Amino acid sequence: MIVGSYAAIGDSFSEGMGDELPDGSPRGWADLVALGLAAAHAASGGEGFGYANFAIRGRLLGPILAEQLQPAIALGPELLTINGGGNDIMRPRVSVAATADRLVAAAGEATAAGIRVAIVSGGDPTRHIPLGPFIKARGDELALAVRERLDGTAIAYIDNWSDAALTDLRYWSVDRLHLNALGHARVAGNVLAGLGVEVPEAAHAPHGEGEPDIARPRTAEYWRQYVLPWIGRRLTGRSSGDGRTAKRPTLLPVELPGSF
């Protein structure tokens, strides 16, 4: 797939949490996909490549679609990736079928506007987090439901949830809920391959495949630093994304580094 512009909508997964640059800003798989697409565009003789990213951490699917979908469509990108539902399946109550319906309907809306669309699922962290088996059952159900609904359509589905390799702890950040740089690099490879774009051989992540093990807190410390604050936000109706705005809400040029 050769395109000249790309936009992403979603939650922390598409924002790039867990793959922070030295200044603390998130990079992530969508940024890496933009680089891969820009490289393919340039190799085909195209000039200029635009990339926008509306994703905001902590967002449920409803707010993602209400706040991000129309602004993304309005930019008229040639490609749009949609992710969402990961935060929904961690809530006490959720309709997986309705979540799948909304994802596919949103993709159809963008497709009707003349935009190529890919729904991109998050990786499966459930081997390493509390209530893992419960959340995994929902994630498996959602992946199957989306795949069934997209059968026979032109909408691509990049199913990172079913990527068995991504369940390995080495792909996850210290909070065990967000991918680290290595994990985001693998997802970028999955997305580019799913779109039929050559995946660059150079490692995307700062340390490549040899990234060292992360110093991870012991169980009690992990609960205190990550699990209990997450539960507190759920109980009080707060989100880690409260007050945040999109990191790249317009199509900006992508510069190709020498390593890509």
Structure write-up:
This protein has 260 residues and is α/β, with parallel strands linked by helices. It has a single domain (5-250), classed as SGNH hydrolase (Rossmann fold, 3-Layer(aba) Sandwich). Helices cover 39% and strands 10% of the residues. The protein is built from 7 helices and 6 strands, in the order βααβαβαβαβααβ. It has helices spanning 12-15, 29-43, 61-75, 96-112, 132-150, 181-194, 219-236, and strands at residues 5-9, 50-53, 79-82, 116-120, 156-158, 248-253. It has a 6-stranded mixed β-sheet with strand order 5-4-3-1-2-6, sandwiched between helices. α4 (96-112) links the parallel β3 and β4. α2 packs across α6 (181-194). Mean pLDDT is 87; it is low at 202-212.
Q: Which terms summarize this structure?
A:
260 residues; alpha/beta; Rossmann fold; six-stranded mixed beta sheet; 7 helices; 10% strand
Quick synopsis:
39% of the residues lie in helices and 10% in strands. By secondary structure, it is α/β, with parallel strands linked by helices.
Q: Work out the helix count.
A: 7
CATH superfamily: SGNH hydrolase
The end-to-end span amounts to: 18 Å
- What is the CATH architecture descriptor? 3-Layer(aba) Sandwich
Shape type: globular
Q: In total, how many domains does the architecture comprise?
A: 1
Helix percent reads 25-40%
**CATH domain fold name:** Rossmann fold
Strand ordering within the main sheet: 5-4-3-1-2-6
The ordered string of helix (H) and strand (E) elements is EHHEHEHEHEHHE
Largest sheet: 6 strands, mixed
Q: What portion of residues belong to β-strands?
A: 5-15%
Give the C-level CATH assignment.
Alpha Beta
Low-pLDDT stretches = 202-212
DSSP summary, beta strand count: 6
* Average pLDDT for all residues: 87
* Integer-rounded radius of gyration: 17 Å
Structural class of the helices, strands and pairings? alpha/beta
